[in-house]
Amino acid sequence: MNEFKIVLTGPMGVGKTTAIAAISEIAPVKTDVQNNDSSNAKATTTVGLDYGELTLDNGDKLRLYGTPGQERFAFMWDIMAQGALGIIIMVDATRPDPVADMVTYLTYFRNATQKSGCIIAVGRLEHASDTSLEAFSERLEQLNLVYPVVPMDARVPQDVSMALELLITQLEAKL
Amino acid sequence: MADSPTKNAVTYSIRGLPAKDEFSLRSTIRMAEKKVAANWDYSSSLPCDVLFLGATQQPDELAPSSFVPDVDATLFVPVTQQAGHIGLALLLPVHLVDVMSALHLSERQLKAGSSLLTATAHPDTFDPSTSNRLDRTDHLPIVVPTGGSGDLGQEHVTGSHIAIDSTEKDLAKPGYNPSLAARQPDTTKPIEMLAASESPTYRLAMTATVELVRWPDHAYLKSNPQYVRLATMLTAKPMDATTLAARSRASHDLCIRFISLMLIAKRARVIEPEPVVAADDTSPSDSRNTLTAAQQARLGIFAKIRSRLGAWGASA
């Protein structure tokens, strides 16, 4: 049996745990604890990693890993990204500076995204009147990067599935 | 003073401009609307009646306006690369009289129920203090393809024509709804129009290898669900239309149209193709046959993942 890995990353509270739960065929493994970070109002936060999986028709496994969002766990991110097919960077459009959030994670995962694939998935756009998808693509252009920038509601399985499908499409095209 | 209550509203949105330029354009439109028949109401989201789209536009490269299905008309706003800045910015100065022309003509086209309205304004060369604008060789006012049946005839209107005829005041008649009058559900026509236009960009897109320089604006991608997939493939590596079609399994024609659109919108650029290293019996365009066994195996994996995601989607 072969195993393949895709990593979902992004700031705390962006919906990584939710996204994995939305499409995993097993009950996702969570390492959430009570949130003591006063900068974010969510009740719990991931301190280890989230894990879900999909079984392919030949028995191979597609493993989905969600990183802990807080930067103090950044030491884990590079380890988690090793060998990944690709990275989905999730950003929350309602945060104070979601474009800067994207850049932060692009920087941390630079090695992985250069070797594999990368999708920028933007959530809660409907609640962010002053942020558009174009702001992300414009910033990427300034960094000489071109990655798909797509809206994604982490609660909607079709949205998560589409982001994964685009990642696969990107990887196919690289061959 | 408040506007006349009989004025009807045209909703508009702006895409493809930096935020500061969008604000400038909105302010100019706000001033210009005092001189036209309808109220122009800004909408941050689609659908809307008219979309102002930042693009570097040549008159012979007019793309059909309604490739964005949720709008009735698109006004191409000139943008340019500014020295010392990254990315495109609104071509300045923008003159009130040109914006008035654009608004007025948009209203007229919407009133006529035309599904096609493509206008391009080049305010960089127009000096409103110049009285002989008509005689200037560099005047580039508004270019409007007329009619909704595929006629690409162009009507040139200059600053001397911006005064609103009294006969057109009926735009403000109660009950007139430009949105209902002009909205056309047929989104395939603009693509056919682009294909039929045989613009230089279209011909270039037939053979050129292009790379994406920026992820396309959402407004472009919404015009065709396959565009997201094509754009995603171009984020991976430069391709020509033939390779893109072979790899995406989209039609060759669709790939040409997509590349044309990206070139017009400055979201892609033409690059020199990589030289063919080894000559063999395989056609260069049939790149699938040149993959190594390991790459073929990887493709198989990707196909299984896609199948699994698809199966999941079907059961959801």
As residue ranges, the low-confidence spans of chain A are none
Number of strands of chain A: 8
Shape of chain A: globular
List the uncertain runs of chain B.
58-67, 114-196, 281-286, 312-316
Q: What share of residues are in beta strands of chain B?
A: 15-25%
Task: Please state the oligomeric state of the protein chains shown.
Answer: heterodimer
What's the helix count of chain A?
6
Widest sheet, order of strands of chain A: 4-5-1-6-7-8
Taking the alpha carbons of the first and last residues of chain B, their distance comes to 55 Å
Q: Report mean pLDDT of chain A, rounded to a whole number.
A: 88
Note the run of SSEs of chain A as H and E: EHEEEEHEHHEHEH
Sheet/helix structural class of chain B: alpha/beta
Tell me the Rg of chain B in angstroms: 22 Å
Short description:
Chain A has 175 residues and is an alpha/beta fold.
3D structure, described in words:
The complex is a heterodimer of chains A (175) and B (316). Chain A is built from six helices and eight strands; from the N terminus they run βαββββαβααβαβα. Chain A has helices at 16-23, 74-81, 98-108, 110-115, 133-142, 157-174, and strands spanning 3-9, 32-34, 44-46, 50-55, 61-66, 86-92, 117-123, 149-151. With 316 residues, chain B is an alpha/beta fold. Chain B has helices at residues 19-32, 96-112, 178-182, 188-197, 200-207, 218-221, 225-236, 241-248, 252-264, 293-315; strands at residues 9-15, 39-42, 48-54, 71-77, 79-81, 88-90, 118-120, 142-145, 154-157, 209-212, 239-240, 268-271. The longest helix of chain B has 23 residues, at 293-315. The A-B interface holds A 2, 4, 23, 25, 54-58, 60, 62, 117, 129, 132-138, 140-142, 146-151, 157-158, 161, 164-166, 168-175 and B 15-16, 18-19, 44, 86-87, 211-218, 228-229, 231-237, 239, 247, 291, 295, 298-299, 301-302, 304-310, 312-313, 316.
Provide keyphrases for this structure.
heterodimer; A: 175 residues; alpha/beta; six-stranded mixed sheet; two-stranded antiparallel sheet; globular; B: 316 residues; five-stranded parallel sheet; three-stranded antiparallel sheet; disordered C terminus
